[in-house]
Description:
41% of the residues lie in helices and 14% in strands. The chain is an alpha/beta fold. The mean pLDDT is 93. Helix 1 links the parallel strand 1 and strand 2. The chain starts with 8 loop residues before the first strand and ends with a helix. It has a domain at 43-170: Luciferase-like domain (TIM Barrel, Alpha-Beta Barrel). Strands 1-2-3-4-5-6-7-9 form an 8-stranded parallel barrel, surrounded by 7 helices.
Amino acid sequence: MSILADIPFSLLELAPMREDSTITDTLKDSLAYAQHAERLGVNRFWLAEHHNMPGIICSATSILIGYIAGGTERIRVGAGGIMLPNHAPLVVAEQFGTLASLYPGRIDLGLGRAPGSDPVTSLALNRDTQRAEHFPDEVSELQSLLGPREARQSGQAKAVRAIPGENTNVPIWLLGSSLFSAQLAAQRGLPYVFAGHFAPRFLSEAIALYRREFVPSAVLAKPYVMVGLPLVAAPTDAEAQFLSTTSKQRILALIRGQEMWLKPPIDSMDGLWSEQEKSYVDSFLSLSICGGPATIKHRLEVFVEQLGVDEVMFTNDLYSNEHRLRALDILMSIKA
């Protein structure tokens, strides 16, 4: 039996949009994608907060989580993540407390400390440019707001309460691409997600730090590591390489400060990028699981065995929604 049989597979969704599509159709496609994932036995379906990025339609993250959860029945739905410096902890607690009340036992709350946007947009979201420095304190505040009321009694005549939110105990995950969140997750005894789908550089160091410094907590007895990976699955290696040019064009647009619409795959990237740009894109996507069934199975088995991860979360940003669904079929078939 494959080592992958017992490893949960999950999805990270950015609601990727083609320039010739509409926001309405893009979000309908995301729901169809989540419904297909649920039928196949995918564990979680998370949405990632981004702002001011044409081609990425998930700025109103909590609303989309409700949309996806309302259109599915069993799959866990959550944020991967909410960028906490953009929001007051009370507002996040109320939103996710509401979601958890509507969809009991199915809502996850992943938290990040990056803005999920460019500096100008970040300032429009939050005038306090130092908010990220208070991330550990705001995580604690959010945990308190989502926990039992008795734990928050402090002798105050009127303590702030999240209604809904209080006592929902929505599972909190810390997300990161460096050592900061790994260390904080370890200190708090929280599950940790490494963003290998876009920032693979500190992967091994972050996981080792998290496991080494982990302190058991009321929510987690031992470390739990999930890693995000880009996925390009197709019937053959050659077709997967062809389809992967959509992601490569998108990352190229990102580093050039251009709009990030999904573009059709092309035969070759030659002539589209400089050597420096090619190197950057290749580094960005260096953990990509790209190929036919046998190739992606082998790459994932090696990855899981080397790092001992507990769960893998995939981005799957292909140009055609039909190809996205097919990629899920292929991915889930290799677990056997």
